[in-house]
Design brief:
Layout (H helix, E strand, L loop, with lengths): L13 H13 L17 H13 L3 H4 L3 H27 L4 E2 L1 H12 L6 H13 L14 H5 L6 H4 L7 H4 L2 H8 L3 H20 L7 H25 L19 H6 L6 H6 L15 H11 L3 E2 L15
Antiparallel strand pairs: 1-2
Helix pairs in contact: 4-5, 4-6, 4-12, 5-10, 11-12
Bound molecules: zinc ion (ZN) (2 copies).
The site of one zinc ion (ZN) has 6 residues, from helix 14.
Length: 319
């Protein structure tokens, strides 16, 4: 007998499948009707908001551009890239430093403004990637093709799920579970805030030459879409292009231009060799902006116990 949420496709009416998919746009724990049917297929209904984010960028044709809008888009790119690499990746996924429960919640909120789902989903899939990097079960290995590794993997029922058994240390916090369940709340608040700030600036500071729709399109949609594609180059390109300093079991590479684009994540071969380090650059010239930001947070006592590479790693270098 199938498990309660495992139905053959033919037993679930199309209307119910569609309403369930739409409900999961806002509540990621809403029951799945047909996830058991080929869990690696692209779920196009689930993918609609993702496609919509890209289409919304075309709004620049109507709202125009201003230096204000470009600065806001750039600032939100930098802050949210830092949140993805410094919080979602190095804290939630790898626990490379310590933080209080309150700070951890703030990290989760800022991280979820990047529109890359909740912290538990992100960390669960990322831990799975490290355990099985570039093996058959690795959902975003470029061995499955560029587009599969870049973005198609998370548009599948298997990629959509959060396997809580991989993140028991995070799942015990109800506030993080809530952020993960309703992962569109923070992004929607950010979008609404940008529109409101733009509308106020139009009235109070007309010399800035901006307005609500313009800040919404540039600050939210364009910034988020560029941020997304830059982040996932680490899955699609950093396992393909660059140098290998360590002979890891996977295809990870060190790549300086990906490191600049992603604030330090491009030192991906170093990272796969020793994932527990808060710092990913190993040499002084391996620019790792996220690490400098974390050092600053450590000086301000927001975080502590930043882990680094142990001395023995240099003896394992092969190039
Ligand atoms: Zn990797
Ligand atoms: Zn990692």
């Amino acid at each position: 007998m199938p498990a309660p949420d495992q139905h053959d496709d033919t037993t679930v009416p199309a209307g119910r499948r569609w309403s369930a998919a739409v409900l999961r746009w806002v509540d990621t724990e809403a029951s799945a009707t047909d996830d058991a049917r080929d869990p690696d297929r692209i779920d196009w209904l689930r993918a609609l908001p993702f496609a919509g984010m890209h289409l919304a960028c075309l709004g620049v044709i109507w709202v125009g551009v201003s230096p204000t809008a470009l600065w806001v888009a750039l600032a939100l790119y930098v802050v949210r890239m830092f949140a993805i690499t410094g919080f979602y990746h190095r804290y939630f996924s790898h626990r490379a430093y310590r933080a209080s429960r309150a700070a951890q919640f703030v990290f989760g909120v800022v991280g979820s403004s990047a529109v890359q789902r909740g912290p538990l989903w992100w960390a669960a899939h990322h831990r799975h990637h490290h355990r099985h990097a570039d093996l058959e079960v690795d959902l975003h290995s470029p061995r499955h093709g560029f587009w599969r590794s870049h973005m198609l993997w998370f548009l599948t029922p298997r990629g959509f799920r959060t396997d809580l058994s991989r993140v028991p240390d995070l799942a015990k916090f109800p506030e993080l579970r809530w952020l993960d369940r309703f992962d569109t709340v923070v992004p929607v608040l950010l979008a609404v805030s940008l529109y409101a700030v733009g509308a106020v600036l139009e009235q109070r500071a007309p010399h800035l030459d901006t307005n609500g729709p313009q800040l919404l399109i540039w600050g939210f949609f364009v910034s988020t879409v560029v941020l997304f594609h830059a982040s996932v180059t680490i899955n699609s390109l950093a396992h393909r292009f660059g140098r290998r300093r360590f002979d890891t079991r996977d295809d990870s590479r060190n790549n300086w231009w990906l490191a600049l684009l992603t604030l330090g994540e491009g030192w991906h071969n170093n990272h796969h060799f020793y994932p527990g380090s808060a710092r990913q650059g190993l040499r002084w010239w391996e620019v790792d902006v996220t690490y400098y930001g974390l050092k600053l947070l450590a000086m301000l006592r927001v975080v502590g116990d930043l882990k680094s590479y142990p001395a023995w790693v240099t003896a394992r270098e092969v190039a």
